[in-house]
Specification:
It is built from 2 helices and no strands. It has 58 residues and is mainly α. It has one domain. The protein is flat.
């Protein structure tokens, strides 16, 4: 659960960025969508309590 409204909004913005790029038909839109998705996943990983994190990539 994310209690900070600013952090929650950042995650929402990244999620909508994924959708926006995925729906676009411009060059590199798929790559941009994947980049936004990777940033979203990493941001979610950062929000986990440290006890749940691994020392390597998820």
């Amino acid at each position: 659960t994310i209690n900070d409204p600013d952090q929650l909004q950042q995650l929402r913005d990244l999620f909508y960025e994924v959708i926006r790029h995925h729906s676009a038909s411009v060059p590199l839109s798929e790559a941009l969508a994947m980049n936004a998705l990777e940033r979203l996943i990493l941001r979610c990983f950062q929000q986990q309590p440290i006890s749940n994190r691994h020392a390597h990539d998820p």
